Predict the structure.
Amino acid sequence: MYAARSWSVRHARGLNAFYRGFESLLVALEPLWRAIGYERLERPVAALERGVKGLLFDCRMCGQCILSSTGMSCPMNCPKNLRNGPCGGVRADGHCEVRPEMKCVWVEAVAGAARIEGGMAALAAVQVAVDRRLTGRSSWLRVVRERVAAAAERPA
Ligand code: SF4
C-alpha cells in the first residue's frame, strides 16, 4: 500500500533501529534455527516476512533486502527495478516517469536515508545485481546465515 510505504520512509530512523535489534535477535537464536533446519523454516518465515514487509514497504520478496541502505524505500518498487539510484527519467516534481502517481523510489530513498545515522553513506554503496534465483525466499534467514558464516571466518 503506497500510503504505508510513504509512512515507512518518514519513520526510517525508528524502523531501521528496530530492524537492527530484530536482526541481532535472529542471529542470537541461530542455534535454534539450525536445530529446526533452515529449509524447514524457509516457507513459514518467508510467508511472515512477506506479510510484514508487504504491509510496511510493498516488499516484492527479492530475497536480498537492502532497505537499510535505501532509507527504507524498497528499490523493487521501481518499475525498472533499479538498485543503484534513479534512471534519467525522474520528473521535475520527483515522481516516477513510468508511474507518475508515485514518487520515484530513489527520491524517497534519499529522504529516508537522511533520517538514518550513516544512511547517506549506506545509500552510496554499490549494490550487486539482484539474483533472481532468490526471489520469494526469506532475506531474514539469509542474513542470519551470512552473519554467522562471516563470524566463523573471522580470526579469533
Ligand atoms: S529490497 Fe527486496 S526484500 Fe527488501 S523490501 Fe524490497 S523486495 Fe522486499
